[in-house]
Amino acid sequence: MKKNVLIIGAGGVAQVVAHKCAQHNDILGNIALASRTLEKCEAIAASVAEKGSMKVAGQICCFALDALDVEATASLIRETQSQIVINVGSAFVNMSVLSACIKTGAAYLDTAIHEDPAKICETPPWYGNYEWKRKQECENNKTTAILGIGFDPGVVNAYAALARDEYFDAIDSIDIIDINAGSHGKYFATNFDPEINFREFTGRVWSWQNRQWTQNRMFEIKRTDSLPVVGEQTSYMTGHDEIHSLSKNLDVPNIRFWMGFGEHYINVFTVLNNLGLLSEQPVKTAEGQEVVPLKVVKAVLPDPSSLAPNYTGKTCIGDLVKGQKDGKEREVFIYNVADHKEAYNEVGSQGISYTAGVPPVAAALLVAQGIWDVEKMVNVEELPPKPFLNLLNQMGLPTCIRDEAGERPLNFS
Amino acid sequence: MKKNVLIIGAGGVAQVVAHKCAQHNDILGNIALASRTLEKCEAIAASVAEKGSMKVAGQICCFALDALDVEATASLIRETQSQIVINVGSAFVNMSVLSACIKTGAAYLDTAIHEDPAKICETPPWYGNYEWKRKQECENNKTTAILGIGFDPGVVNAYAALARDEYFDAIDSIDIIDINAGSHGKYFATNFDPEINFREFTGRVWSWQNRQWTQNRMFEIKRTDSLPVVGEQTSYMTGHDEIHSLSKNLDVPNIRFWMGFGEHYINVFTVLNNLGLLSEQPVKTAEGQEVVPLKVVKAVLPDPSSLAPNYTGKTCIGDLVKGQKDGKEREVFIYNVADHKEAYNEVGSQGISYTAGVPPVAAALLVAQGIWDVEKMVNVEELPPKPFLNLLNQMGLPTCIRDEAGERPLNFS
């Protein structure tokens, strides 16, 4: 039984995590918020207070923290007596926060793979470059580390495990499809940190096909699907974290990730990318100033958290799984539909942040209750999916399925 | 009789100016090259030597200069005994270089209007904001200052004066049309300093219509013309320097400027502009660095002078003039066609730089010979056009006309 949660990061996802922790503080205990910018933490704490999100009377405290500083992070974990750390800060701090958790015995949860700011799209499997190198250390220290427990990666990994356990004897392919059919009303914006968002698309696209790593260019391969609620949608093969663990942990020859993009997004992205404005390598201006173009693009784009109040429409994210069951071919789509406006009304964030922020809190509850407190490093598909998906059904991210029998909610209680 | 030329600036236009001065150094005397970056001057001097451009044995010397420093500029004028200064540096240095000329008695020639780096698209007439405020001072000191003596402004102003003198009793409209039908083979590039290039299009578009200043947005109004050599071309109403003097000096109710843009250029421009990346106002990155987005865009774009070797195709720039002559309506198009490859072969620059760089050298020759040494500040339409156009016929920028009698070269000798 673990309790008291330290949330690292203070962006849109952290806002959702804080609200959801507050809604379950009878189990999770005290909440600490830490980021480089104290004011951002305080704004989140104020939002939690304003919406009355606390289930029972409890603490929510804010701290300024450089999460690249392992000692400072470990001290804060000890000072706040946090036994669970939810890291939703920049993807650059994962390894230092993990180190602090190993030092202190706190459980570690994150929602995206570690990145080196100087590198784009490293060699697959990506988890092998940083996270998995520390598996033994976690096991030796009985540190629970759950990697990539957002929506994608995260919930879609649990969908894959569920498909394997319940719906198939053998799986030929898993196509994870991520569609945001919402509208933010701006000329152009990214739904989360532009620096991380664009980095997903500027490198090579890795997919797992015929049990091999395959390379493509971004926007080279697309598909069109008729999906529940959001209708006909075009998506493009994209590199994504979950392929890099599912390909190792599941016996599935084809695992691909597809992200929906409108033509306008692709046009803006293509212009910026072709001009070199999405580069993480510094350039020198005529005046001699060294500047990273991507950081300037980030500076001129709308802050993703500012999009929430006017965001309308829905997201649909799920796993399209094909294979055999009882000697017959079958195809199932396991998915969630979330609504931007409902997310904003509940926790003050848009739907993309909501789908990423609710799952780590569900995971924290399972760690707190001992169900997922596995005392080692795991990816989500290595954990029992049903208790997790069951909790999400109650917490605002219901799971549905479309198969031979049509579309319906899935319930596991 | 004036001699010895100081060229300020070391970009693509300065390269053309240096070569053309060298080709006429029997009249123009010694050549001095000055810019912030000495190496750029030296590269131009080396190119002049390599191509053997000097007509007679003579000096070409290079100097590092901050042309915003009036005293340093005046000292260099005295030190080099330059009686003619051709300012083809940044548009931000015009007023300081003019001051140095007034101090030293050197003739001043430039090719673009003065700009304040912090302002975009000021109140018309633009010359009234800076240049014309110093008319009296020039007259008092007998300083010859010829403003805007590139191609446009410059040659097109002479075309307008010629139309007024030779082809019309009354003019209803002058539409200056600038088409670059060449291809540089890059994804995207500007033909001269991107900082100045984009500034032309990010503000309001001023035109002179029905004897009044009229405002439009960029890319709001377009026209399509069938032009000599380059064929059918679409151009967009654009704000431009020459409208601001022609509207004062000519009795013409409608004066407009049209620049040709392809759809790709407009798309890239629109994306960058809508995102705020063409702003001259600094933004702050997440790391706290203050950066002017436009300077970063400039840093990632190809250096305009690097385009020359692979540039192919032609430019067509001219004045479409409508009015009455001897009681009859008529329409004439006075124009030049230049070839990018020929320009590169002759002086190592592309056609846009060539059309901008040859005219100030023709003007310098007219100043040297006393024909245009007017000892006051003038715009080009205030000077006799024929000696100038005649020189350009010999120097690589022949004037043609299309009227009721068809297309043909114009000769004034």
Automatic annotation (TrEMBL), chains A, B:
Residues 150-397 form the Saccharopine dehydrogenase-like C-terminal domain. Gene3D superfamilies: Dihydrodipicolinate Reductase, domain 2, NAD(P)-binding Rossmann-like Domain. Signal peptide: none annotated. SUPFAM superfamilies: NAD(P)-binding Rossmann-fold domains. InterPro entries: NAD(P)-bd_dom_sf, Sacchrp_dh-like_C, Sacchrp_dh_NADP-bd. Residues 5-146 form the Saccharopine dehydrogenase NADP binding domain. This is Carboxynorspermidine dehydrogenase. It comes from Marinospirillum alkaliphilum DSM 21637. The lineage of its organism: Bacteria, Pseudomonadati, Pseudomonadota, Gammaproteobacteria, Oceanospirillales.
